[in-house]
Write a structure and sequence with these properties.
By secondary structure, the chain is α/β, with parallel strands linked by helices. It is 34% helix and 19% strand. Strands 3-2-1-6-7-8-9 form a 7-stranded parallel β-sheet, with helices on both faces. Strands 12-11-10-13-14-15 form a 6-stranded parallel β-sheet, sandwiched between helices. The radius of gyration is 21 Å and the shape is globular. The relative contact order is 0.13.
């Protein structure tokens, strides 16, 4: 795919540290530059932010956070000032109807005959009271975009179900790690000291369900109980540490680690487990040749985690997680083969380079018709 000979604008509610490599790589492929509009997270979100970007230009938004939970809304003040200053040829917006500033940005672009692409997880069916009105509003919201980019086949199917044209939907599998150039770590035929290392990496929030991981490990036969390493920080850290002390006292907490400091944890681990929602670290773990266990959540894991390299378990199901952990830790040779498959998937399919390529294709598709 040819580099984008345009000025690209990209909006994000916040700029998380894990996204910095993607934005820098995409910006490097925009010959006339890329400007990123992003604001500050709420304090309780504990989102680590990069110090600065060197290739992408950044413009600080003023995020006004309204309400909480399922009623949360966000207004990003200054978005039209940013567009007026940058004068982009194409705009990528987060396709989230909770962001109240999006329609005004779309109108600004379309008045100038410039395309707007939406980037989102998907659009799960709305249930319960008000479902019909909610579905109508969502369809109307999505219809304003000239193309949509999503992380998974599940997200693409949900957008099609909302009536969005299939040929305008692009799947860019979620990645935080580049195609690995180094060989996968060489792991021994047996667990070191006869005990496996199970690794979790991520923000420590209640929805990560580390309680399930501790309980599942405590229910394993004694000879299979692993060392559990927790890498990350967040609002639920104290609660998780207290719970681990009660349920699985050998669990170790290492705090937040970033960049190269994460590598030793991935290299020494035998299995990566994500018992709750989220999970960008899954792809990163796979780049280090780790098999993975993830809870089914937003559908982005379906394309990443396959029977050949890991297990998807029902969210919140303690018995299934315990069963899968016992199965995984009972056969070291199978675990190593699954890790090799993880490495192959990241090397050949799901990596930052391919994610950037899909974004480029999506932008080219709307520029040709703008």
């Amino acid at each position: 795919m040819s580099p984008l000979d345009i000025r690209l604008a990209l909006q994000q509610r916040v700029l998380p540290e894990y996204r910095a490599p993607f934005f820098e790589m995409l910006a490097a492929n925009c010959l006339k530059g890329m400007s990123l509009f992003a604001g500050t997270p709420r304090p309780e979100e504990a989102i680590a932010r990069p110090d600065d970007l060197t290739v992408a230009k950044t413009w600080k938004a003023h995020n006004i956070h309204l309400f909480k939970g399922k009623f949360y809304l966000c207004w990003q003040a200054g978005i039209l000032d940013w567009l007026n200053a940058w004068q982009p040829d194409a705009l990528i917006l987060e396709a989230n109807p909770r962001y109240l500033h999006s329609p005004s940005a779309v109108r600004w672009m379309h008045r100038r005959n410039k395309p707007v692409l939406g980037w989102g997880l998907g659009a799960p069916p709305i249930q319960g009271t008000g479902a019909a009105a909610g579905t109508w509003f969502r369809r109307r919201f999505l219809a304003q975009f000239d193309a949509l980019i999503t992380y998974s086949a599940t997200g693409a199917a949900e957008y099609r179900a909302c009536g969005f044209p299939a040929d305008k939907i692009f799947i860019a599998p979620n990645a935080v790690a580049s195609r690995p150039f180094q060989p996968a770590p060489s792991r021994p035929e047996d667990f070191k000291a006869g005990q496996a290392v199970v690794l979790f990496v991520g923000r420590l929030q209640a929805r990560k369900r580390l309680d399930l991981l501790f309980r599942a490990c405590s229910l394993l036969p004694e000879h299979l109980r692993p060392r559990v390493w927790i890498v990350g920080d967040g609002p639920a850290r104290n609660a998780f540490e207290s719970l681990a002390e009660e349920i699985y006292p050998t669990a170790e907490f290492f705090g937040a680690q970033h960049g190269a400091a994460l590598a030793p944890y991935f290299e020494e681990a035998d299995l990566f487990v994500l018992p709750g929602t989220g999970g960008l670290a899954v792809q990163q773990a796979m780049s280090f040749g780790l098999p993975v266990v993830v809870a089914e959540a937003d559908g982005t894991q379906v394309d990443l985690v396959r029977p050949e390299n890991g297990w998807c378990v029902q969210s919140g199901d303690l018995s299934e997680l315990t069963y899968v952990l016992e199965k995984a830790l009972s056969d070291v040779n199978r675990l190593r083969r699954m890790g090799e498959k993880s490495y192959q998937i990241v090397s050949e399919e799901i990596n930052l380079e391919n994610m950037v390529n899909v974004f480029e294709r999506a932008v080219w598709s709307v520029l040709g018709e703008s």
